[in-house]
Write a structure and sequence with these properties.
The chain is rod-shaped. It has 14 helices and twelve strands. The longest helix has about 60 residues. This is histidine kinase. Pfam families: HATPase_c, Response_reg.
């Protein structure tokens, strides 16, 4: 469609009837005789006619009896910041300041009345319509780019969330690995518990593999290809932008900018693909770890003197990223001087469970700090005390009695395995574990008493 064929309605806002007559005569020489003209003598009349007449082009005089043309432009622009149709400003003198102001407020071009000829008016009108069309197309591409960026941000956020979830799953599997490696043949209850954990882990790994496959399909169905095709189309038609480039210095930069951004989006998609591959590799590693554990789950391991304070530091290091991500402040009050006499793998599993539970209990501490306190001390009767305290969600009084029961959990997605295992393992090693909370949102303290071991000679 030619630019002339796009013009069917012209609105002239000009207070001199003689000038309006000249403009119409000039335009009728060049334009289709089917063009309809609407004439207005003031800014207010022109604004009202603009809404009712819905013109394809506006010829706007700068000097009007009730307001100047700049104010009319601003009113025409509305929420868009520029008029929805091309506007040509007409001035009585060659004032560059007025011209610049008019262009800034959305006019496509301007003409000095003394210099208006039939050819000049026709050329300016056609150029204005073409420039307005090009600006609209660029706006369309810009909006498409913004939508693509928003989609990529959403996908990136989903990938980060998936990564954090997988890291949490890895930490849990490390815990199970330690448990299964140290399971003893004569501990039948723990053997049953370990088997149920393995079953649940297998289901979780299947779900993770499915999620990875879905993420890959989501990326493959991306609109990125369509966006790159649009960029190539712009590149193929760069020669059509000559007039726009001659008027607006940014014109020659925008199409090339879109091409560059398209290349960046393509590279980002490739990086997302690499991330998905890495997640799949981690799932395979977890599967290998579980298979190895199943072959070793029945091995009997002995108790030995262990450095409780040092083990706590190792577990904190294991959860270092979670602690940092949740902005948790850790307080270490290590007063125990004697080692504990316990099974190393079981003890590590207990510590991992309790510290992980404390971190999760503080996840909803919105607007208040998160504090994790670890305190060790020597106790009478050959015992060593460990207290793990958080200032998180707390425990309801009626839940405290069931806290160590198999299958009971206060978490929405909990399986009720962790704390029962801790209680059984502590009992097997000759110790005990207790929980105390003053109620909901009052935090929780777990107190563990281990048998003390002899210091190495």
């Amino acid at each position: 469609m030619s630019e002339e064929s796009r013009i069917r309605r012209i609105l002239m806002i000009e207070d001199f009837a003689e000038d309006r007559l000249i403009y119409k005569r000039y335009l009728k020489r060049k334009l289709d005789g089917q063009v309809v003209y609407r004439e207005c003598e003031s800014g207010a009349e022109g604004l009202a006619a603009f809404l009712e007449f819905q013109p394809d082009l506006v010829l706007l005089d700068y000097s009007l009896p009730d307001m100047d043309g700049i104010h009319v432009l601003a009113r025409l622009g509305g929420a868009l910041g520029r008029p929805e149709v091309p506007v040509v400003m007409l001035t009585g003198m060659g004032n560059e300041a007025i011209a610049v102001q008019a262009l800034k407020n959305g006019a496509m071009d301007y003409l000095v009345k003394d210099n208006i000829t039939s050819t000049a008016l026709h050329r300016t009108v056609i150029n204005a319509v073409e420039k307005h069309r090009l600006v609209a197309e660029l706006d369309h591409h810009r909006q498409a780019l913004e939508r693509s960026n928003a989609e990529l941000e959403t996908r990136n956020a989903d990938l980060r969330a998936s990564k954090l979830e997988l890291e949490r799953e890895v930490a849990e599997r490390r815990q199970v690995q330690q448990t299964l490696l140290e399971s003893e043949k004569h501990f039948r209850k723990m053997a049953e518990f370990s088997a149920s954990v393995i079953h649940n882990l297998g289901n979780l790994i299947t779900n993770i593999s499915t999620s990875v496959f879905q993420m890959r399909g989501f990326l493959e169905s991306s609109q990125l290809k369509n966006f790159l095709m649009a960029n190539r189309l712009i590149d193929d038609h760069l020669d059509d932008f000559e007039r726009f480039v001659a008027v607006h210095p940014k014109g020659k930069l925008l199409p090339r900018y879109l091409l560059n951004v398209g290349d960046q989006l393509r590279r980002e998609q490739e990086r997302f693909g690499d991330e998905i591959e890495a997640l799949g590799d981690r799932v395979n590693m977890m599967r290998d770890i579980i298979e190895q554990q199943q072959t070793r789950a029945k091995q009997a391991l002995k108790s030995n003197p262990l450095d409780l304070n040092g083990m706590l530091d190792k577990v904190l290091d294991l959860h270092g990223e979670l602690i940092e991500n949740h902005e948790i402040e850790v307080f270490r009050h290590y007063f125990a001087t004697r080692p504990i006499f316990a099974n190393r793998a079981k003890s590590l599993q207990i510590l991992i469970n309790l510290i992980k539970n404390a971190i999760e209990a503080m996840a909803d501490n919105l607007g208040r700090p998160r504090h994790l306190t670890l305190r060790t001390s020597d106790e009478p009767e050959g015992l060593v005390l460990l207290q793990v305290t958080d200032n998180g969600c707390g425990i309801a009084p009626d839940h405290l009695t069931n806290l160590f029961a198999y299958g009971f959990s206060t978490k929405k997605e909990g399986h009720g395995f962790g704390l029962p295992y801790c209680a059984l393992a502590m009992k097997e090693m000759g110790g005990e574990i207790r929980a105390h909370s003053d109620g909901m949102n009052m935090g929780t303290t777990f107190s563990l008493r281990f048998r003390a071991g002899r210091r190495p000679s």
